[in-house]
Amino acid sequence: MRERGDDKPVLDYIQTSLNLGNVICNGKFCRFSVYRKTDIKEIISVFSKYPLNSSKRLNFEDWKKAFELYNDENINGNRENILSIVEKLREGMNKGRYYETFKVDDVKITKYWLLGFIEGEGSFNFQKKGFAVTFTLGQVSRDKPLLEKIVEFLKSHSGNLYTKESFLTIYDKAKENNINQNPYSEIRSSSLYSLRKVLVPLLSDLNWRSKKYKDFKDWTLVLDLKAAGLHTASEGKELILKIYSQMNNNRLSTKKSDVNVDVDKLHYEIKLLLAKSTDHTSKANSVNLHLENGELVMSFPSIYSCAKFLGVNKYRVSQSLTLNKPFNVDNKVYYVRNA
């Protein structure tokens, strides 16, 4: 496994947790490697017990088969034949593998599996102009079924929140000029409401291992500033641009920058600005829909989305909210409250 030097603590954590292998750094990168036969057997045991969810499982299975063939002293046969089989397995792995969609029925997605996947393949971004926020998570298109499972998992954590079907969309990206490049697919979301209400709560309470946690925390502050409408104010813009100047690749220790940002002070200034603003969570006009008995039906990012869900005019929903007045839809009595 190879990571940039900034994420050496991730490799150290893996090495310490497994109590095998070693971590060696060379230049900008560090590598976790396992060479001893007994250690490799332990790695095989781990991934046999906890199968990989992506197409990398196919490479693992061939690698495991080659290792067992090469080291099985009980196999009767010509050693050269065994080496030939091992070589064929090697040639068909990784870039040598025939490209096809990988789909298995035993995909198991948990919060921490997803967090690890996001730390490796995810991205938290916003545009410097206009501050449009995005979350992306991509893989080669052979693993598109896995991305679909991840979308299902995330939507299952939306609870009573109203989220549009387009909250998480999978896009297929065309090959570029490099003919050796595999097709690529990615999950993408730019829904401010859904990101703040679904993704952020899901990831905030987990224990991160990589420096991507810092990008996630900065990104969530931008979400809060946008939800409060502060991204249009000069003070808010200035703070967001400071975040931009030291996020993602700008955060790397190898990146030379003319901007020196005191991150702790920056975070304090943002939280102070949010505290000064009127309840920044209500700026987006979020509302809750309740039954007559008080039971919560669903939470919505706006009066309009609530009205659309019920199939009624938005003024009926607005009137219920303003006058604390019930209204009837399909023989059910509803109330609307501020979220």
Task: Walk me through what this model shows.
The protein has 339 residues and is of the alpha+beta class. The protein folds into four domains: 2-96, Homing endonucleases (Endonuclease I-creI), CATH 3.10.28.10; 99-205, Endonuclease I-creI; 211-282; 287-338, no CATH class. It is 44% helix and 17% strand. It is built from twelve helices and eleven strands. It has helices at residues 8-18, 37-49, 56-71, 79-91, 111-121, 144-156, 192-204, 212-227, 234-244, 263-276, 303-310, 314-323; strands at 2-4, 22-26, 29-33, 122-126, 133-140, 169-173, 184-189, 287-291, 296-300, 327-329, 332-338. Strands 4-5-7-6 form a four-stranded antiparallel beta sheet. A four-stranded antiparallel beta sheet has the order 9-8-11-10. Helix 3 (56-71) runs antiparallel to helix 4 and helix 11 crosses helix 12. Residues 279-283 have low confidence and may be disordered.
Descriptive tags:
339 residues, alpha+beta, Endonuclease I-creI, 4 domains, four-stranded antiparallel beta sheet, 12 helices, 11 strands, globular
The biggest beta sheet, please? 4 strands, antiparallel
How far is it from the N-terminal to the C-terminal residue, by CA? 45 Å
Name the beta content range: 15-25%
CATH architecture identity of the largest domain:
Roll
Give the C-level CATH assignment of the largest domain: Alpha Beta
Low-confidence stretches: 279-283
Name the shape in a single word.
globular
Count of DSSP-assigned helices? 12
Biggest sheet, strands in spatial order?
4-5-7-6
Spell out the helices and strands N to C.
Answer: EHEEHHHHEEHEEHHHHEEHHEE
In which range does the helix fraction lie? 40-55%
Measured on Cα atoms, how large is the radius of gyration?
Answer: 25 Å
Kindly report the name of the CATH homologous superfamily of the largest domain. Answer: Homing endonucleases
CATH fold descriptor of the largest domain: Endonuclease I-creI
Mean pLDDT score: 88
Structural class: alpha+beta
